[in-house]
């Protein structure tokens, strides 16, 4: 079983507004990312923190069509992505492989995630790390056997720390895209033009 974990808890301080709620083509970034995971995963859990009530409404609306969509409020979300990741993994448990995705990557769709899953099915001992023209980044598919490594993840410790500390445990998979996420208004304006 593959469980999708969408990290959507951050406050988007550099951006100045909640990125989860930004819209492209009448869908929020939260919706784009959740739908990509829902196309490919058996279950999906969204980790929330900032703007929890607005995000909750979006998830409730999606749950009308997707009973396999769940949410979890991370109490330590302000500590950073590492804390949200660890909390989400703890909520999911260790009975499945986990595909970790970030809310600010709406151009990653179900096709890309299926490709990562297909690569994973060929060797389920390694974490599959997306590679964007030479740059490793999420989404990342973590095998059940490696989930213990994230049990005590905290603070700002993101996934990059994992593949730097454990290169022998990862398999980068080239997606043929340039890496983009939304951290600033400049990033957002650029992404909207390219979408």
Automatic annotation (TrEMBL):
Keywords: Transferase
Transmembrane segments: none
Pfam families, alphabetized: NTP_transf_3
Name of the featured protein: Nucleotidyltransferase family protein
MF-aspect GO terms: nucleotidyltransferase activity
Segments forming domain MobA-like NTP transferase: 4-166
